Amino acid sequence: MNVFVPDTVSKPSRRSFLIAAGGITAGLMIGSTLSLGEAQAAKTADGAFNPFVIIAPDSTVTVLSKHLDKGQGAATGLATLVADELDAAWDQVRVEFAPSNAKLYNNLQWGPYQGTGGSSAIANSWEQYRSAGAAAKAMLVAAAAKAWSVPAGEIKVEMGKLSHASGKSGTFGEFAAAASAMPVPEKPALKLPEQFVYIGKSFPRLDVKGKTEGAPIFALDVKRDNMLVATIARSPKFGGTVKSFDATEAKKVNGVVDVIQIPAGVAVVAKSTWPALKGREALNVEWDFSKAETRSSDQLFDEYRELAGKPGKVFRSTGDAEAALAKADKVVEGDFEFPFLAHAPMEPHDVVIEFDGKKADIWTGSQLQTVDQYVASKTLGIELPNVHVHTIWAGGSFGRRAIYDSHIVGEAAQLAKAWGKMQPLKIMWSREDDIKGGYYRPMYVHRVKAGLDADGNVIAWHHRIVGQSILTGTPFEGAFVKDGIDHSSVEGVTNIAYDIPNMHGELHSVKVGVPVLWWRAVGHTHTAFVVETMIDDLAAAAGKDPVEFRLGLLKKKPRHTGALKLAAEKAGWGKDAPKGRFRGVAVHESFSSYVAEIAEISTDEDGDYKVEKVVCAVDCGIAVNPDNVAAQMEGGLGYGLGHAIRNEITLTDGEVDQANFDTYEPMRLSDMPNVETYIVPSTAAPTGVGEPGTPPVAPAVSNAIFAATGTRWRRLPFTKNEGTGS
Amino acid sequence: MRFDLTVNGSKRSVDVDPDTPLLWALRDELNLTGTKFGCGIAACGSCTVYLDGEPTRSCQTMVEDVGEAKVTTIDALSGKSAEAVQAAWRELDVPQCGYCQSGQIMAAAALLNENTKPTDEDINDAMDGNVCRCVSYHRIRKAIHRAADMMEA
User: Fold this and answer.
1) CB contact (8 A) between residue A273 and residue B101
2) What does the pLDDT look like over B85-107, one tens digit per residue?
């Protein structure tokens, strides 16, 4: 795959990456972690009970979050797991981000990588963080038992206080020093669900107060003594390189310190942000596009459509779909198109780097700390452990900060190396840099044919997908790409929930020079749309109610069924919608969470529509913080809806047509429907909620439009379809 | 070039080019980092400050045009409506990533200064210029109503 990577940020091949990663995690088996006892040996802070819990003499409990919090609430969630088992009072708990150290802080679902993504933060930490809290509590109890000369079993811990029937009592702080030196229990007993004090209840997020006061918590706010600010002029076509540049005018800008070429482009280094931006405007760069992607998105769509008519690589084959289609009573067909999408997190990218020739400190909203360390170490020519990534609260991500080639940190490292003056540098991205910068949700074309028998049963499904592989050629290839099939291209289809006897799927993985990346819910952003609108069309062809039709095909899927039934009940499905309103439904599993959404729209004579309300039901196992689950559903479906309504990234001769929020018009408050979220009660281990709210919304709205008008919208954004209003 | 500004009740001077956006003067020169950069073209509202009490996009306001106007930023936001908005925001856990919330809160407090009982329509009109990419809009709407109730109580 022709992924655009700045030259000297050598994209780690899977092999070299794994060797490097293995080097720092020697002895660490994939999917395992250190025991708490082993980990204690690595503790560095005073009052550290283990790598996740520090208790200070003033009784403050600091939970170290190994995961980035970019708004999804992971930091509060991890603190909740510790606080519950520790029986801390909520107001004594705070959270900070763990240092970069894959040996201590790896994602247990990923093996030897520290990183956040795939809605895995709570799911992979569920036992680890509870064990950390339970172990710390056991150590506090042991210290108190020793001091009070009473059996440990007689000591009670409640809301941050230790007590004994004799009347003795004490705070965590009093015993913190003695307790942290106690032996670490290897397998501390964990609570039963009925003993939880925080888990399953909604407690205020720990980061909200600062976020209502403009607290300086983002990488944008990081200031170091003597720091300079840099912007980088990058090729306007992906894969282009600098032919020559003229910095005369740029250097005349007051505050510009220097202009230097680095592999990523031409950097303008200035005393502060405005001259860095203005200096770049004044810069004249001539680009070499000989190796650049120069196709337009219209041309790419033509090529994709042509491929959709040809056989591809088979990713699923059950029964004989073609034979069944030939015998079908009715056949429903659909061609679907999905554009490139930018993530456009609210905080444009920014990195602060300090490099003294031997070690580097990096402050950024790091989502893949281990990859950031690796790329910086290779670029700077230093050992990986000498790169310290200071994870900072990030202003959104939606996938954009989890970058397989760490190109943002990589560029910062290129510049720090080229600058060579042991001076802190902040590399700033403008919004235009972000929107035009690639790493998009890939474009996709799907072609589907499905057949019903005379009784309205779905007997055949033939599905062809055309689009770029996100993960081929990245360090994640080994985990996600099997026999040439990138799972992230076909997830949601290859494991389709509906019971269909003859199922055939094919994939064309095309090579395009536009860098692509996972975007909130990844492959499900297109596959759920296709499956859920096709199912709706099949229900209509069979003359059946869309919910009843789905339930009939989901008899072996109790969790889909549970979410769908709950949403249908709460939305009043089966009863008449209010006058002028129309409903559409979708249900989809992603990241092991099950979400059903029912969209209610209104329409007017001009063909305008408005999404008035979405009822959402989610089964995510135990909801650690139900209010945060609701927040993620609201945000996840809102994010999906905003892009479905009107967003696309298009290319003309390889150049991105959009630039900022005027041409990539974001979802706004007046677009936002009312949202009701309901959680399916569960005792299953928690699964993620950051992404699963996104996939069902676009098909639910398309299905509501179909209910209202009989017209089927199969192209995204919706403005691409015939008969759409403004 | 030196400009004398009144920021959060104090006289402050900055030495910058006249075309420097107020946003960068506040952030880089005065270290008032509560005001955020989101787009630079007045399309997202992250950089909202008050000029003489009026919500204004600081990314499109040049320092030379500020003149005598009193600048207020989130760092020193106070008053009945601001306090109600911040309290409602905390009660309903409005922020997700939080990056846009300085601007959201400035806009919401300004709305409640003018209109103590806004309708959904009023809220749409006042807040549509403030983008939240986490899409916390559902809670922003609820929290503005909640803040209005708090102020009435």
Assistant:
1) no
2) 999 999 999 999 999 999 999 99
